[in-house]
Amino acid sequence: MLFRPNLSVTALSMALASCSPAPTDDPFDDTGELIALSGGDAGPQAACHTCHGLDGRGDGALVPRIAGMDTGYLVRQLGFYADGQRSHPQMSWLAGRLNSEERLAVSAYYAAMDLPEDVKGSEILPEPSCEIAKAYEIYHAGLPERALSSCASCHGETGLGSGAGNPALVGQNAAYLAEQLRRWRNGERYGDALSVMHDAASKLRENEISPLAAYIAYGPEPSRRLGFPVECP
Predict the structure, then answer these.
(1) Three-state secondary structure call for residue 204
(2) One-character DSSP codes across 83-138
(3) For residue 164, with 0-12 CB atoms within 10 Å meaning exposed, 13-18 middle and 19 or more buried, which class applies?
(4) Where would you tag: which of 22, 34, 71, 80 has the fewest CB atoms within 10 A of its CB?
(5) Residue 149: in which H helix or E strand, if any?
(6) What residues have CB less than 8 Å from 135, skipping those under 6 apart?
(7) pTM more than 0.85
(8) Which residues pair with 143 in a beta bridge?
(9) What class is the 130-218 domain?
(10) What is the percent of the chain with per-residue pLDDT over 70, rounded to a whole number?
């Protein structure tokens, strides 16, 4: 016996299908806002705003500012976390659950945020000292006797970065900056082109890292010497 389809059921199915709305693009997927606010497929525990804040400014401690950072830089860092070139339990877990399109979307979302107006000089003015004076010299002039180039040669005289591959440092907390310098120096963080940051950080002495981080966090400015002592050893 031949099977004869129920024409009424078939017709009804076709009619319902014709009434179904056409799929639409989700604007949150385009901007990365959904991932930033909900964590996307990684779940709410991976939502970016829980650590970096709704404005992307970080927590003022060890969570960095990502608002206004270059898109390519942010994408590259997520890739480093995913493949182990940067190590952080939550970031490594999160980045490993985002595909390349999602990493680009969420990076573009934070990159499109305006750099907060009060981001520069948001930290307390470092107490004038020979250590801060040395930090000033390291940042703006480097240390030729150690073959250490100035921080400004890549990150800009005012810390706003020099080119897309060299991130702005303004708005990052001193504790975060010091931790990253130590990670670069100790080989716990890598992936920079030509190992520039590892080589630079390895030429810093331990007692120079915190003062340098404090100077950068306050906001580098070549015309402002912060009342440094005239005579320093």
Answers:
(1) coil
(2) HTSS--HHHHHHHTTS-HHHHHHHHHHHHTSPPPTT-TT-SPPPPP-HHHHHHHHH
(3) exposed
(4) 22
(5) none
(6) 126, 208, 211, 212, 214, 215, 216
(7) no
(8) 148
(9) mainly alpha
(10) 82
Q: Which two tokens stand for residue 37?
A: 């606010």
What's the token pair of residue 125? 């003015």
Say yes or no: domain 28-111 is CATH 2.60.40.420: no
Q: Taken in order 219, 223, 229, 233, is the CA torsion positive or negative?
A: positive
Share of the chain above pLDDT 90, in %: 44
3-state secondary structure of 196: helix
Q: What are phi and psi of 88, to 5 degrees?
A: -160, 125
108 burial (CB, 10 Å; 0-12 / 13-18 / 19+) is middle
Residue 148 β-bridge partners: 143
Tell me, yes or no, if the two domains 28-111 and 130-218 fold the same way: yes
| Residues in CB range of 73: below 8 A, 6 or more apart | 164, 165, 167
Q: Is the model's pLDDT at 174 over the cut of 70?
A: yes
Task: Check whether 162 has a pLDDT greater than 60.
Answer: yes
**DSSP conformational letter for 165:** T
pLDDT tens per residue, range 37-53 = 887 776 777 789 899 99
**Average pLDDT value for the chain:** 82
Segments making up each domain of the chain, as ranges? 28-111, 130-218
Angle at 209 between CA 199 and CA 125, to 5 degrees: 135
Inter-residue long-range contacts of 225-228, CB under 8 Å, 24+ positions, other chains counted = 225/133, 225/136, 226/125, 226/126, 226/128, 226/132, 226/136, 227/128, 228/128, 228/129, 228/130, 228/132, 228/133, 228/136
